[in-house]
Design goal:
The chain is α+β, with helices and mostly antiparallel strands. It has three helices and eleven strands. Strands 1, 2, 4, 5, 6, 8, 10 and 11 form an eight-stranded antiparallel β-sheet that branches.
């Protein structure tokens, strides 16, 4: 009698027993969340570039044409010109050589102050710091010279600072070595000359013998 009553419930009981034996049903598999690419980082700030006149010391300051005279003579012959070396210790010519007779007056090309006046390796040297030429200021040097000024003297443009001395030289004729520096950088001293001073003298027509003047 009891068996007949349980027959309708048999499928449900079997299903419950099967589920209990197998354990809890696993959770449904979820699709992984989409991976988002990281936001691009902002570009790095640019490195500041030195601006001329900023005083950083790394910019190239032009040489002002402030000369009011040649160091010797009026328009002396340049025996050897400016030939800057490729590297700091390479061979070259860190200045210009100007032909002049021994004993010729050596003049300051512009206003300045005497930094040094004396002997270096047996040669007389006069070095001037030029007024109003920036920071660090320009320094011009004359050798071989018999100095007539002293360290600390204030010098006016075209003022004599000594006379050309007699010393062994690489020039084939007596010459003055004229140099220019800003800090440790050697520069062309001829760049101190304005156009009116560096230009050659005007040509003159001379009479030819046997040809009457017009």
């Amino acid at each position: 009698m009891h068996v007949k009553r349980l027959l309708p419930l048999l499928p449900a009981l079997l299903l419950t027993a099967t589920a209990s034996a197998a354990g809890a049903a696993p959770e449904p598999v979820r699709a992984p969340a989409p991976v988002r690419a990281p936001a691009p980082s902002p570009p790095p700030s640019s490195v500041p570039v030195p601006v001329p006149g900023s005083g950083s010391g790394s910019e190239a300051v032009p040489v002002p044409a402030i000369a009011r005279s040649w160091p010797v003579g009026t328009r002396p012959v340049v025996v050897r010109g400016w030939d800057p070396p490729a590297t700091p210790y390479a061979r070259g010519h860190r200045g210009v050589d100007l032909a002049a007779p021994v004993g010729a007056p050596v003049r300051a090309v512009a206003a300045g102050r005497v930094l040094f006046a004396g002997q270096v390796a047996g040669r007389g040297v006069v070095s001037l710091e030029l007024t109003g030429t920036g920071t660090p200021p320009l320094r011009t040097t004359y050798t071989p010279v018999r100095p007539s000024v002293s360290e600390g003297d204030e010098i006016a443009p075209a003022q004599p600072v000594g006379t050309l001395a007699v010393t062994p030289s690489h020039c084939t004729t007596p010459c003055l070595h004229w140099g220019l520096r800003r800090d440790k950088a050697y520069l062309n001293p001829l760049s101190l000359l304005p156009a009116w001073l560096s230009a050659r003298a005007p040509a003159r027509l001379l009479p030819v013998l046997g040809v009457p003047l017009p």
